[in-house]
Amino acid sequence: MFRPGFDLDEERERRAAAGQPEWFGEDDLYDDVRPALAALRTAGLWLGIAGTQTVRAGGLLRGLLESDVDLIGTSDDWGASKPDPVFFERLTKAVPVFSAETLYVGDRLDNDIRPAAKAGLRTALIRRGPWGTIQQHHPDAAQLPTMRIDSLVELRDGIAKCNGTAR
């Protein structure tokens, strides 16, 4: 996919120096992000966002969502990228509950669900984006996740059901 000798970090720096740094804002969030975070917060849950992102992206995410969540952690923060088990080890150390009480949401079986489950986390496979579409019919998509969702707003009721407190 990339030319021989391609250095992603170097190319990011060149892009930033050219006045086109990595950037995203409120309009780039999925429509269900804010309502889902609000519902989960109202339910009294500890919330975190973790993913394979740069330090710059982590800063952008913190600017957008820090008041809505308890943790924002990136692969650059932790020195490990998904699906590396070290990423999930660092995640579980940052979360103030047992791994079996933590739900990790992701759209990929290979990068998110399998390694999170192997780390002892509960998992939610969200069917969105290219990977959610490509992998939705894989046998593991039906068997491996704790739950499957089409929208983040489904999390509150799904978590309540998993915890045995659904009303």
Architecture blueprint of SSEs:
Blueprint: H1 8-17, H2 33-42, E1 48-51, H3 55-65, E2 71-74, H4 75-78, H5 85-94, E3 103-106, H6 109-118, E4 122-126, H7 129-134, H8 139-143, E5 147-149, H9 155-162
Parallel strand pairs: 1-2, 3-4, 4-5
Brief write-up:
Helices cover 44% and strands 12% of the residues. It contains nine helices and five strands, in the order H-H-E-H-E-H-H-E-H-E-H-H-E-H.
List keywords for this structure.
globular, single chain, 167 residues, two-stranded parallel sheet, alpha/beta
Report on the architecture of this protein.
Strand 3 (103-106), helix 6 (109-118) and strand 4 (122-126) form a beta-alpha-beta unit. A 3-stranded parallel beta sheet has the order 3-4-5, with helices on both faces. Strands 1-2 form a two-stranded parallel sheet. The protein is built from 9 helices and 5 strands; from the N terminus they run H-H-E-H-E-H-H-E-H-E-H-H-E-H. The protein has helices spanning 8-17, 33-42, 55-65, 75-78, 85-94, 109-118, 129-134, 139-143, 155-162, and strands at 48-51, 71-74, 103-106, 122-126, 147-149. It has 167 residues and is of the alpha/beta class.
Look at the structure and give the mean pLDDT. Answer: 92
Secondary structure class reads alpha/beta
Number of distinct helices: 9
Count of DSSP E strands? 5
Residue windows where pLDDT falls under 50 for at least 5 positions:
none
> Any idea what the shape is?
globular
Strand content: 5-15%
Order of helices and strands: HHEHEHHEHEHHEH
Sheet with most strands: strand arrangement? 3-4-5
Report the major sheet: 3 strands, parallel
* Distance linking N and C termini: 49 Å
Rg, alpha carbons: 17 Å
Question: What share of the residues lie within helices?
Answer: 40-55%
